[in-house]
Specification:
Strands 2-1-3-4-5 form a 5-stranded parallel sheet, sandwiched between helices. It is of the alpha/beta class. It has one domain: Rossmann fold. Strand 1, helix 1 and strand 2 form a beta-alpha-beta unit. The relative contact order is 0.18. Helix 3 packs parallel to helix 4.
Length: 146
């Protein structure tokens, strides 16, 4: 089972700053504690210095990560604020038939509503669901807000 973690990195920062990426460790830890066999695909772990990439490397990395999202078994999208890259990951996953479990307070946002199989209001409710879910697939099995 391949689980892709999409999530906000730069947000609306005009410079090279990135948002706190601690959510990626939290998601990875709770998934692996419940299902040790899961393979987590984390773009930030794969490319921690990507903010410094030149245009060609940035584009190649973006498109490679979109391919990973489209080929995953599940995409978990962490969207506490608008994120262009995460929206792209959600879109390609949705188009490929990959379920998208979104963690976001933006439950009325069209992108969140249209592309998510399931929406969790916050990381805590997502983690609570993981701890009780019978399978990884169950994380995206209900089209409701938790």
């Amino acid at each position: 089972m391949h689980v892709f973690i999409g999530g906000v990195m730069q947000a609306s920062n005009a410079g090279k700053g990135i948002m706190d990426q601690g959510y990626r460790r939290q998601i990875t830890d709770v998934l692996l504690a419940r299902w040790p066999e899961v393979e987590v695909l984390d773009p930030f772990a794969m490319h921690p210095q990507s903010i410094e990439y030149d245009d060609a490397a940035a584009a190649a990395t973006l498109f490679a990560m979109l391919d990973l999202a489209a080929g995953a078994d599940l995409v978990i999208a962490y969207v506490p604020t608008a994120s262009m890259g995460t929206a792209l990951e959600m879109y390609v996953a949705h188009r490929a038939g990959v379920p998208v479990a979104t963690i976001s307070p933006l439950e009325t946002n069209w992108v969140v509503r249209a592309l998510s199989s399931r929406v969790f209001r916050d990381l805590e409710s997502f983690c609570a669901c993981v701890r009780t879910a019978g399978s990884v697939a169950e994380l995206a099995s209900v089209a409701t807000v938790n």
